[in-house]
Amino acid sequence: MIRSALKVLAAAAGAFALAAGTPGLAASAAPSAQVTAIPADAEIIFASSMAGTKDPWGFPARELYVSRADGSHLTQITHAGFSHNHFGVSPDRRWIFTNRYSRGDTTGDGKIDYRDFKELWLIDLKTLTERRVVEGVDGGYGGVAWSPDSKFVYFSIRQGQGSNIQRWPIAGGKMVSITDNVNTLLHMPGDVHWVSDIDASPDGKWLGMLYSNGNREDPKNPRKVRIIIYKLDGTEARFVTDGGPMPAGQYGMWPAGDFDPAFSADGKSISFQRATTARMLKRGASTSDMMRQNLDGTGLTLLSPKNNQNQAGISSYGGPHCQVVWSVWMDDEPSHIEIANPDGSDRKEVRFKGEVSHVQWIPPNPPGACKPVPAH
């Protein structure tokens, strides 16, 4: 769950905030770096420092890996020696769009985390090359998303005191801000909003995203973050979740509420992360559960174990069997992956020799709708 601390980043925002329609700068070729093709049977993609390599600044490099859903057939995809933040494979499996910490510790606090500058990169899985795109933009807060035709990507950037979702054509061209009117559509006061943590619906008509009205970290006006869906033609937006029972306020690095929505393959429901009050983890975050809910507000389902003492987040909903996959951060063990059916049944853990996180389903090969696991 990578989200901005608005106060920490406020000084940097002025330099990098872009108005709607700002041209995307010409893409630049990456330094020579090997890219490995995604095997045909790969089902999930995730980031990990399991290789033990370091980035140019001496921090662990979190490269991209793929595997089958059970963890078998593990393959390292990137080898550039940088840490990846959020990423997604295009529906046609030709591309990976990712943001990575390829400028190092830009805050100077001695670590690499969500506060540091995140460059946007496009990886070509056919030519096995990568290039930096939309240069000068610190983007991809909370996630990235693809259009169904694999021609556009969506990501969040800071703008003023808040943020907006951008659409950018991978063939090159202007980056366009598409959520400027979200407060009006939601009938929320003011002109400041924070939107991030995005996913695109399978039909390409909607974006699911985290929403907060104003500065969500304002101690004088605490509020929860909630999930909304936004129609890409700009005519409609509505709340989907209520933020859960956790009292509003800041809990470590994240506020109370719901994060990181992911659409189901039929576009009728979402999985998402919900902050809880079970305890505070050593990494400075509260516990959180993985949830599932229909877009009409019905069918709220807990996917994490009851009385969960860990942080569950960054989900993806689909795969070959219409399941939800997510990451789990713990205090004294490496982070791992969990997978469950939409009703919470048949939950499994997938572990590797090192930490893994930000797992996403890879679009099916060949393309087609997922098939639920038959009931036992």
Helix content: under 10%
Secondary-structure element order, N to C = HEEEEEEEEEEEEHEEEEEEEEEEEEEEE
Query: Into which percentage range does the β-strand content fall?
Result: 35-45%
Unreliable residue runs: 1-32
Largest sheet: 5 strands, antiparallel
Count of helical segments? 2
Q: Mean pLDDT, as a whole number?
A: 89
Q: Span between N and C termini?
A: 34 Å
Shape: globular
Largest sheet: spatial strand order: 1-8-7-6-5
Radius of gyration: 19 Å
The strand count comes to: 27
Helix and strand composition category: mainly beta
Descriptive notes:
The chain has 376 residues and is mostly beta strands. It has 2 helices and 27 strands. The protein has helices at residues 6-16, 182-186; strands at 28-29, 44-48, 63-67, 75-76, 84-89, 95-100, 119-124, 129-133, 139-146, 152-159, 162-169, 176-177, 193-200, 206-213, 226-231, 237-239, 250-251, 254-255, 258-263, 269-280, 286-294, 301-302, 311-318, 323-329, 336-340, 348-350, 356-361. Strands 1-8-7-6-5 form a 5-stranded antiparallel β-sheet, with no helix packed on it. Strand 11 and strand 12 form a beta hairpin. The longest helix has 11 residues, at 6-16. The radius of gyration is 19 Å and the shape is globular. The chain starts with 5 loop residues before the first helix and ends in a 15-residue tail after the last strand. Residues 1-32 have low confidence and may be disordered.
What attributes does this structure have?
376 residues, mainly beta, five-stranded antiparallel beta sheet, four-stranded antiparallel beta sheet, 2 helices, 27 strands, disordered N terminus
